[in-house]
């Protein structure tokens, strides 16, 4: 069997950075926790737990020590709360997310109504909203949502980092009809779109696609969905021991990809297992 591995499979820049920071912080601190799981990979979260990094849901649960902030950031209120309690912050917010927060803050200071293109409930979006302090803030998912915004003199637009450029363009177009002055910041990071395009290409070239990553990882699940639109033989697995030999019957080319929150060692284990099965067959 031939194995094709997607070029960007696995960690994106921000997740790699956050994970490194978490492991380094675990080595240099006694009491340490992360506010929510550091990434959507149960296997990596377990490794960090073994190194003493506890996962907490709320700042109220933290009594002492240091707090790791995840790559998609937290609200400005949560950050202030952490510092008011005398806790140390290990801020692993991805620089791309930080940039979206900073743009929103600047638009708010300059008197714009701030439109954020993204998913209202997502922690990254809630974080960005919190930085647009003092401004009128509207979160919109689509051009149709944006069409319902009341007319305003000045509108400033930023996007959740994982949005598509097409959607940002659509929303910005709808906002232009609502105001005299429009400012748009492209705060999208292309890690998501690059992985999705590579996954589609892989599905076109393979008889079977394996998508590796947490079942709780939205970006991994989305990769599996996109592959299925092209190739019905797609399996989403978290670890190598979930592979089943009968999946590979009659398969000549196996495509392999992984979400932005999938550690390299899990990808390597899957590759080794597929190679082993290939030798045995
Ligand atoms: Fe950062 Fe983009 Fe990853 S915003 S966390 S590099 S998906």
Automatic annotation (TrEMBL):
Cofactors, names only: [4Fe-4S] cluster
Binding residues for [4Fe-4S] cluster: 12, 94, 189
Annotated GO MF terms: 4 iron, 4 sulfur cluster binding; 4-hydroxy-3-methylbut-2-enyl diphosphate reductase activity; metal ion binding
Binding of isopentenyl diphosphate, residues: 40, 72, 122, 217, 219, 261
Pathway: Isoprenoid biosynthesis; isopentenyl diphosphate biosynthesis via DXP pathway; isopentenyl diphosphate from 1-deoxy-D-xylulose 5-phosphate: step 6/6; Isoprenoid biosynthesis; dimethylallyl diphosphate biosynthesis; dimethylallyl diphosphate from (2E)-4-hydroxy-3-methylbutenyl diphosphate: step 1/1
Residues annotated as the enzyme's active site: 124 (proton donor)
Annotated positions binding (2E)-4-hydroxy-3-methylbut-2-enyl diphosphate: 40, 72, 122, 161, 217, 219, 261
InterPro entries: LytB/IspH
Reactions accelerated catalytically: dimethylallyl diphosphate + 2 oxidized [2Fe-2S]-[ferredoxin] + H2O = (2E)-4-hydroxy-3-methylbut-2-enyl diphosphate + 2 reduced [2Fe-2S]-[ferredoxin] + 2 H(+); isopentenyl diphosphate + 2 oxidized [2Fe-2S]-[ferredoxin] + H2O = (2E)-4-hydroxy-3-methylbut-2-enyl diphosphate + 2 reduced [2Fe-2S]-[ferredoxin] + 2 H(+)
One example of a Gene Ontology biological process annotation: dimethylallyl diphosphate biosynthetic process
EC number annotated for this UniProt entry: 1.17.7.4
Domain of life the protein comes from: Bacteria
Binding site for dimethylallyl diphosphate: 40, 72, 122, 217, 219, 261
Cofactor note: Binds 1 [4Fe-4S] cluster per subunit.
Coiled-coil ranges from the UniProt annotation: none
Keywords, alphabetical: 4Fe-4S, Iron, Iron-sulfur, Isoprene biosynthesis, Metal-binding, Oxidoreductase
Classification via PANTHER family: 4-HYDROXY-3-METHYLBUT-2-ENYL DIPHOSPHATE REDUCTASE
Function per UniProt: Catalyzes the conversion of 1-hydroxy-2-methyl-2-(E)-butenyl 4-diphosphate (HMBPP) into a mixture of isopentenyl diphosphate (IPP) and dimethylallyl diphosphate (DMAPP). Acts in the terminal step of the DOXP/MEP pathway for isoprenoid precursor biosynthesis.
Family from the record: Belongs to the IspH family.
Protein name as it appears in the record: 4-hydroxy-3-methylbut-2-enyl diphosphate reductase
Lineage: Bacteria, Pseudomonadati, Thermodesulfobacteriota, Desulfuromonadia, Desulfuromonadales
């Amino acid at each position: 069997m031939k194995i094709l591995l997607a070029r960007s499979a696995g960690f994106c820049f921000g997740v790699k950075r956050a994970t490194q920071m978490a492991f380094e912080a675990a080595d240099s601190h006694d009491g340490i926790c992360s506010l929510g799981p550091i990434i959507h990979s149960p296997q990596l979260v377990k490794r960090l737990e073994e190194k003493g990094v506890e996962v907490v849901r709320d700042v109220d649960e933290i009594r002492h020590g240091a707090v790791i902030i995840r790559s998609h950031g937290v609200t400005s209120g949560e950050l202030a709360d952490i510092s008011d309690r005398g806790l140390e912050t290990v801020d692993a917010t991805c620089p791309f997310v930080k940039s979206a927060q900073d743009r929103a803050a600047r638009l708010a200071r300059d008197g714009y109504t701030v439109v954020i293109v993204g998913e209202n409930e997502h922690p990254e979006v809630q974080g960005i909203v919190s930085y647009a302090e003092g401004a009128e803030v509207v979160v919109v998912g689509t051009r149709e949502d944006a069409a319902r915004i009341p007319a305003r003199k000045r509108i400033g637009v930023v996007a959740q980092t994982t949005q598509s450029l097409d959607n940002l363009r659509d929303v910005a177009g709808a906002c232009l009809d609502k105001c005299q002055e429009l400012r748009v910041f492209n705060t999208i990071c292309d890690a998501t779109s690059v992985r999705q395009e590579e996954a589609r290409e892989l599905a076109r070239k393979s008889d079977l696609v394996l998508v590796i990553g947490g079942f709780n990882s939205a970006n991994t699940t989305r990769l599996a969905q996109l592959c299925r639109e092209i190739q019905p033989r797609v399996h989403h697995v978290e670890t190598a021991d979930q592979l089943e030999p009968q999946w590979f019957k009659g398969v000549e080319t196996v495509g392999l990809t992984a979400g932005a929150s999938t550690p390299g060692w899990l990808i390597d284990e899957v590759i080794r297992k597929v190679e082993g099965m290939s030798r045995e067959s």
